[in-house]
Design brief:
Layout: H1 14-18, H2 21-28, H3 34-43, H4 45-55, E1 66-69, E2 78-81, H5 87-97, E3 104-109, E4 115-119, H6 120-136, E5 144-148, H7 153-164, E6 168-172, H8 178-188, E7 192-196, E8 199-201, E9 204-206, H9 208-218, E10 224-228, E11 242-244, H10 245-249, E12 266-272, E13 280-285, H11 289-299, E14 308-311, H12 319-329, E15 333-337, H13 348-355, E16 360-362, H14 365-372, H15 377-380, E17 389-392, H16 399-409, E18 416-418, E19 420-422, E20 427-431, E21 445-446, E22 452-455, E23 467-471, H17 486-493, E24 501-509, E25 515-520, E26 525-527, E27 530-532, H18 534-542, E28 547-557, E29 561-570, H19 578-592, E30 600-603, H20 617-625
Parallel strand pairs: 3-15, 5-6, 5-7, 7-10, 10-11, 14-15, 14-16, 16-17, 17-18, 29-30
Antiparallel strand pairs: 1-2, 3-4, 8-9, 12-13, 19-20, 20-21, 22-23, 23-24, 24-25, 26-27, 28-29
């Protein structure tokens, strides 16, 4: 446990902590306390992950012989060897067989106000029908399909149906342009693309089918395009290739059993953007990503069958598949929304949380920064009393937005489970949990089973200093390499120190046991020989009442080597100018010291971000310096690049 600290803003309620899934797990195994369990989880991963499988009530189509096999090195660890499973059997069939089919599985709301709800039994039937239809189309075990869809109920059905028959799916961001979609389809050799006629975003129609057509033209392996009728708008059509979803499933009774899969068989390839070149296709397996996801949800977020989980995301980002598979493995309900959080008004998100009685809410720090501009009065108009857990991921917090989220959305009673890991991790490395007190912006430590450490430049563990976030033991959710590119996987994560996964984040663990992520190590600022994370500079600027959000980059300097240049988005009612620029420099100097204060501050109306609201600092830097920004396909708002004035 952490040392006593006046910086705590939330401490666990003893009654709630005692009934949490995490505390029950500790007591079930006679561990006494969390620290004892954590040490056992990283010292004996075979015991721990076997215990998790048992605790979550997962079942096997054939029992496994061995939990962990590292005979090929921990870089290529294999889990649950000899067993047979199917992730859909654990997501649906297991619950149906236990008589839980009447529970709510999926709640959906469209930006236009459309709604739909599916029970576990209804979802099970839809999945079996679509799986049967896919088999009739010739889709079989090992085939790859792209899922390019808005976050509608059919996206849940599609991903589960593909997994049920042993096929592999590629989730693709719904806002991608055709070349980005095509790159992913071609790289993985997809033979099928599932999409929708379109969806609405800020009241405007996004013509998804047209984008899918253009992508399919650039990906010659695509044989069929299945189209969900979301809007009912006329769409271009290619006879013999294109099929309506509702017509494909119409004559199927749902007689597709779950295929018995090796736990190491791939079920998903999810792409992450690279700084240069083509995106990386991370490979995930039937008893990998789902197990890690469900474990994190259960013991960090305390999700159980009574919960309704809403994570504002997209199927193309890791948190989309995470939301789907985690809630279903735990018997909970997911809430899906395919629009923007501030349309038709800035209270849309809070309105939905209240109406749908959401209990677990996840949203990025950048989205909170944008919503808090409208003031705390809007969320106060809605009954947010159903919330018991708040979540966040995607980037480091600044103290002001963290406290706003904690006080005005959680009412000072809900913990914020700060969550950081990645697509390659299948979830988190660091998080918070129901048993530990919280300080603003901090993680309470590594997640169970994640042997995390902080290394200095010589590969030695350090505390109280900034270092690289590393992992020294395998876990089931590890990507099984990059699709058809194992060398790139080894080079990316395992090449710096033997047997050590280097994640690419700067992190600091303090004397009280709190951990802080300070930004990507490739974003690190090196000012006159002093290393600093961009989040520290950005937090200093956003502490000023005029600044809504900021991005800090390092720019070459002939004397200092590098100086900080910041881009600031102002709150309504504040105007850019020299006086404000001077004030902000003084604020940064007061927080960081004069040597680390920004050399320049540029005012912009928007910052380039991904759909999950992660600020793309490398793209900002490339634009500012007139360099090639590399892969920018994941940008939600490419027009924001025009806001970045090139260095003269």
């Amino acid at each position: 446990m952490h040392a006593s600290s006046e910086s705590y803003v939330w401490t666990p309620d003893p009654a709630s902590a005692q009934t949490s899934r995490l505390q029950r797990f500790i007591e079930r195994h006679g561990m006494g306390d969390y620290d004892t369990l954590y040490r056992r989880s990283i010292e004996d991963p075979s015991w721990f992950w076997g215990a998790v499988v048992e605790d979550l009530g997962l079942r096997w189509l054939r029992p496994f012989d061995r939990v962990l096999d590292t005979s090929r090195g921990i870089e290529w660890a294999r889990w649950f060897t000899g067993g047979a499973t199917n992730l859909v059997d654990n997501a649906l069939d297991r619950h149906i067989d236990a008589g839980r089919g009447g529970r709510t599985a999926v709640i959906w709301e469209g930006e236009d106000g459309s709604t739909r709800t599916l029970t576990y039994a209804e979802l099970h039937g839809e999945v079996r029908r679509f799986a049967s239809a896919l088999r009739e189309l010739g889709v079989s075990r090992g085939d790859v399909a792209g899922v390019f869809m808005p976050l509608v109920p059919e996206v849940v059905v599609a991903t589960l149906a593909l997994s049920r028959i042993g096929a592999i799916y590629v989730p693709i961001f719904s806002g991608f342009a055709a070349p980005a979609v095509a790159t992913r389809l071609a790289d993985c050799g997809a033979k099928l693309l599932i999409t929708a006629d379109g969806f609405q975003r800020r009241g405007q129609t996004v013509e998804m089918k047209r984008t899918a057509d253009a992508a399919a033209a650039l990906a010659p392996g695509i044989r069929h395009v299945i189209v969900v009728r979301r809007l009912g708008a006329p769409v271009p059509w290619t006879e013999g290739r294109d099929l309506w979803w509702h017509e494909v499933v119409r004559d199927h009774q749902g007689d597709a059993p779950a295929e018995a899969m090796d736990p190491e068989d791939p079920y998903m390839i999810i792409y992450t953007s690279g700084t240069t070149g083509r995106p990386k296709g991370t490979v995930h397996v039937h008893m990998g990503f789902p197990l890690k996801t469900a474990m994190d949800m259960a013991y960090c977020f305390d999700v159980g069958p009574a919960d309704r989980v809403f994570w504002y995301t997209d199927i193309g980002w890791m948190m989309g598949p995470w939301l789907i598979i985690g809630t279903l493995w735990l018997g909970a309900a997911m809430f899906l929304y395919d629009g923007t959080p501030d349309h038709p008004g800035p209270n849309r998100l809070w309105e939905m949380v209240a109406r749908q009685r959401v209990t677990v809410l996840g949203i990025s720090p950048t989205a909170i920064r944008a919503l808090m501009r409208h003031g705390p009065e809007l969320p106060r108009r809605h009954d947010l009393g159903s919330l018991r857990i708040l979540g966040s991921t995607g980037e480091p917090w600044n103290p002001g937005p963290w406290k706003w989220y904690f006080e005005h959305i959680g009412g000072g009673r809900c913990p914020i489970m700060n969550y950081s890991g990645g697509t390659e991790i299948s979830g988190g490395i660091l998080c918070c949990d129901p048993l530990h007190a919280q300080a603003p912006t901090a993680f309470t430590g590594p997640i169970l089973g994640m042997a995390a450490d902080v290394f200095d430049e010589h590969g030695r563990p350090v505390r109280g200093a900034v270092g690289e976030l590393v992992l020294t033991q395998p876990w089931p959710g590890m990507t099984r390499g990059f699709w058809r590119d194992p060398e790139r996987y080894i080079e990316t994560y395992w090449s710096r120190w033997p047997g050590v996964w280097v994640h690419g984040d700067w992190v600091r663990a303090d004397a009280d046991g709190f951990w802080y992520i300070l930004g990507r190590s490739d974003d690190t600022l090196n000012i006159a020989g002093k290393r600093i994370g961009p989040a520290e500079v950005e937090s200093a600027l956003t502490s000023h009442p005029a600044v809504a959000e900021a991005a800090a980059i390092g720019v070459p300097h002939e004397i200092k080597g590098e100086v900080v240049v910041c881009f600031a988005v102002l709150r309504p009612g504040h105007e850019p100018g020299e006086e404000l620029r001077r004030d902000l420099k003084q604020v940064a100097a007061a927080h960081l010291g004069k040597a680390l204060a920004p050399d320049d501050i540029r005012f912009v109306r928007d910052l380039p971000k991904t759909r999950n609201a992660k600020v793309m600092r490398r793209v900002i830097r490339a634009r500012y310096l007139g360099e090639d920004p590399g892969d920018i396909s994941s940008l939600e708002n490419p027009q924001a690049l025009e806001e970045i004035p090139p260095l003269r």
